[in-house]
Design brief:
heterodimer, A: alpha/beta, Methyltransferase, Methionine Synthase (B12-binding Domains), Chain A, domain 1, Rossmann fold, 3 domains, flat, B: alpha+beta, Beta-Lactamase, Phosphatase 2c, domain 1, six-stranded antiparallel beta sheet, five-stranded antiparallel beta sheet, 11 helices, 25% strand, elongated
Chain lengths: 330, 444
């Protein structure tokens, strides 16, 4: 979930520092003090924990935090979310049920957890399925629980094709789907195109959006735009394409032993995934944003300022047989 | 794509004279399209309530202005009705209360009934009560002053388990042709709702079973922290062949991670037996070698045709940390990640349990200081296939070395995430991780 800057707390910097050193007890103490001072726990979930998580992503991109610190901070944030959750009112016994989940292969579960707790605080009975839930597993839960709706989080643009598959699976059961997360644009255009019945820009919007969803829905309309088929071709072949782009970049003269090349190898599947995301969402900005992010991450680790442009060129060569993909990269 | 219609679209129930051949053809095309769409919409909804909502949503307002579905559930009748322009409303009544009504007859005989509603009270309300047993739901339908009420049976697998009742606004009723069409519609929907009912019964059984076999919640233990991760091989199943468990009392605990032969449901039934055997054995004697010895004997005595690999750890408080005694049965050696970043393997060796009698298991003891982490795992981790090779011990050591001193949940999460990235969409074995971390200070 993206966080409105105006919502974030002045204590955010202190909280970030505590997260940086992975100090669970101090982090819990800091959050508890805010609750005691009268701050609504629901606001803290979004404005403190959510906002911090977003900043951590940027700090990692700028190479100021290590992956290890990021993991440690997430573990601490998770404990804070649990604590804040206990401070929220319990939903009534006859509360409508909602299933909160991450799209398959989404391992960053914290945004979905924040949504789950926020919805609980807004009077929903929440079944939280955690990170990476397969379409089959999700459908199983939907059939067993018959929730009012499914709320699905997606942070990575490369997972947008999976969102589409998941939306199709859930809507086939007659259940509406609401989506949210960093992979979507703020207008909700991508969410609509992928067939979601609702889109929440932030965790605190989620309850309101859920309230407005229809009780039952019909199957998602077929995707008819030009890149829809190519999206799934690129998605299925993303590992092979990433390896091919890597080889092409080496042939193009990047230094194999440079320190940032391991990060490049980690980032490549995301960029290729974002191309699939751009194709399924029919929006060039998805892949442009991903390349911009890769540029930021790699330049901060010593790559040249034209690395993203070179990456784009080699990716275009790698997918030259796919017309819609080629146009997006042109 | 649609042919031009001689009347407003969707008037599927309008009476058409025999002379208007073209009009009849268009109507029957529209009707088959409606039936196909409704069948498609309801076929994915394997939950009874959802399926009912989908059917009501198809009927109102496309076909009728009000519809009610009543389904028998034990001694109760669950009624759900939808009025044009409103959300579905719900009520329950007891089966005996409809005994002498038209609704009861439709249920008993499995035959449709068409009721004409008299124009004035109280006769009108009496007629409504014949097929709408809930007074609350009657209010909504009374408001639209229907001329007719059509109540048709919902029958599947040879029994009538419910009814569908429909009504149209004042003046409009149902002619023979309309009745036949709605009966046809109800027959199709009855199969889908019936399938949802059957599914609900089966899935209840499955849920009760899987709850007893699912990985347990980890206990809160002073002086140490625990974290786990569990991912099953078949993504559509909720049960796997790996297991972990932590149990004990005040300051003497047993942690176990294991892997039974096979995959899927059969394997998870075996994990239940293995877990129970460990629990029982630990009650007698917490020494890990004794626990393994007992588990082996239980499994061999049970037939000796299945095997289990596992590591058992006994965890006790000691000066400045924890003392952990470990023993293994054919299982990967646990990792010890020290707070300073050094990494050790705990050399537990022993034969898999369940195949051979009279095995001797040996124990290894380690001491853990503040923020040292002991990681137990199954071979689904190291064997996880990547694009070129298996995940392997080297990658596991590398990711562990970046997590020195971190909270145990972060350590487990980092490993799980790294394995998941390596795996991509490839098929894999069950994956289980259990981290045990020593904490100097008591929590909160």
């Amino acid at each position: 979930m993206s966080v409105d800057k105006a919502l974030s707390f002045p204590e955010l910097d202190d909280f970030l520092e505590v997260l940086r050193v992975g100090d669970r007890d101090t982090a819990l103490g800091l959050a508890r003090a805010q609750v005691s001072a009268g701050r609504p726990p629901a606001d803290l979930l979004v404005g403190l924990v959510g906002a911090a998580q977003e900043r951590i992503g940027e700090l990692w991109a700028r190479d100021e935090w290590s992956v290890g610190q990021e993991h440690a901070a997430t573990a601490v944030s998770d404990a804070v979310v649990t604590m804040l959750g206990t401070q929220l009112p319990r939903p009534p016994a006859d509360a409508p049920r909602v299933v909160v989940t991450c799209v398959e292969h989404e391992w960053h579960a914290l945004p979905a957890r924040i949504v789950a707790e926020t919805l609980r605080g807004s009077g929903y009975a929440v079944s939280y399925l955690g990170a990476s839930t397969s379409p089959a597993h999700l459908t199983q839960h939907v059939l067993d629980l018959a929730p009012r709706a499914v709320a699905m989080s997606c942070s990575l643009a490369g997972s947008l094709p999976r969102v589409r598959r998941q939306v199709e699976a859930v809507r086939q059961t007659g259940t509406p789907v609401m989506v949210g997360g960093r992979a979507f644009d703020t207008t909700g255009q991508r969410a609509r195109l992928l067939g979601a019945n609702g889109f929440a820009r932030t965790a605190d919007e989620a309850a309101e959006v859920l309230d407005g969803l229809p009780t039952s829905v019909t199957a998602a309309p077929a995707l008819t735009h030009e890149g829809a088929t190519e999206a799934f071709i690129v998605h299925a072949g993303r590992e092979r394409i990433a390896a091919d782009v890597h080889a092409r970049l080496l042939a193009d003269g990047i230094d194999e032993d440079a320190g940032w090349v391991s990060t490049l190898v980690d980032q490549l599947p995301h960029v290729v995934g974002a191309l699939a995301g751009a194709l399924v969402a029919d929006e060039r900005a998805v892949v442009d944003d991903s390349l911009e992010w890769a540029q930021l991450v790699l330049a901060n680790r010593g790559a040249a300022p034209d690395i993203a442009a070179r990456l784009r060129r080699q990716l275009a060569v790698s997918v030259r047989d796919l017309p819609a993909a080629s146009r997006l990269l042109a | 794509m649609k042919p031009p219609l001689p009347r407003p679209a969707g008037d599927l129930l309008a009476a058409v004279g025999t002379e208007a051949a073209e009009t009849r053809l268009v109507q029957s095309l529209e009707r088959s399209r409606f039936l196909a769409e409704a069948s498609r919409a309801v076929s994915g909804a394997l939950h009874v309530e959802k399926a009912i909502d989908v059917v009501l949503g198809q009927l109102v307002p496309q076909l009728v202005d009000w519809a009610q579905i009543v389904v028998r559930d034990g001694h109760a009748l669950r009624c759900r009705a939808r009025l044009v322009g409103a959300e579905p409303a719900e009520a329950s009544v007891w089966v005996p209360s409809v005994q002498d009504s038209a609704l009861g007859r439709v249920m008993d005989l499995g035959l449709a009934e068409l009721l004409h509603v008299p124009p004035h009270e109280p006769e009108a309300d009496d007629a409504l009560a014949e097929v709408v047993p809930s007074a609350g739901l009657r209010e909504a339908i009374a408001g639209i002053r229907p001329a007719d009420l059509l109540c048709v049976p919902l029958t599947a697998r040879g029994s009538t388990y419910g009814t569908l009742t429909v009504a149209r606004r004042s003046g409009s009723g149902f002619d023979d042709d309309a009745v036949a069409f709605i009966e046809d519609f109800a027959q199709r929907m009855a199969l889908s709702i019936g399938a949802a009912r059957a599914y609900a019964e089966r899935s209840h059984v499955a849920r009760v079973l899987s709850r007893s076999l699912a990985p347990p919640r980890l206990p809160d233990i002073p002086g140490l922290r625990l974290a786990s991760s569990y991912r099953i091989a078949f993504e559509h199943e909720t049960l796997g062949g790996d297991f972990y468990d932590v149990h004990g009392d005040a300051d003497d605990w047993t942690a176990v991670v294991g892997d039974v032969c096979g995959k899927g449901l059969e394997a998870s039934v075996l994990t239940g037996r293995a877990r129970q055997a460990v629990r029982t054995a630990a009650l007698v004697d917490r020494s890990p070698s004794r626990v393994l010895d007992l588990v082996n004997r239980v499994l061999v005595a049970d037939g000796g045709d299945v095997f289990v690999t596992l590591v058992v750890a006994r965890v006790r408080r000691a000066d400045h940390g924890l003392r952990v005694d470990l023993a293994g049965a054919g299982h990967p050696e646990p990792y010890l990640l020290r707070a300073d970043g050094s990494i050790e393997r705990v050399p537990v060796s022993g034969t898999v349990a369940g195949l051979f009698e009279d095995l001797d298991y040996t124990e290894v003891s380690v001491t853990m200081g503040d923020h040292d982490t002991c990681l137990l795992y199954t071979d689904g981790v190291t064997e996880a296939p990547g694009m070129h090779d298996r995940y392997g011990d080297e990658r596991l050591s590398r990711v562990l070395s970046t997590m020195a001193g971190a909270d145990v949940s972060a350590v487990v999460e980092a490993v799980a995430l790294d394995v998941a990235t390596h795996l991509g969409d490839r098929d894999h074995d069950d994956i289980a991780l259990l981290g045990i971390q020593s904490m100097r200070d008591e929590e909160e």
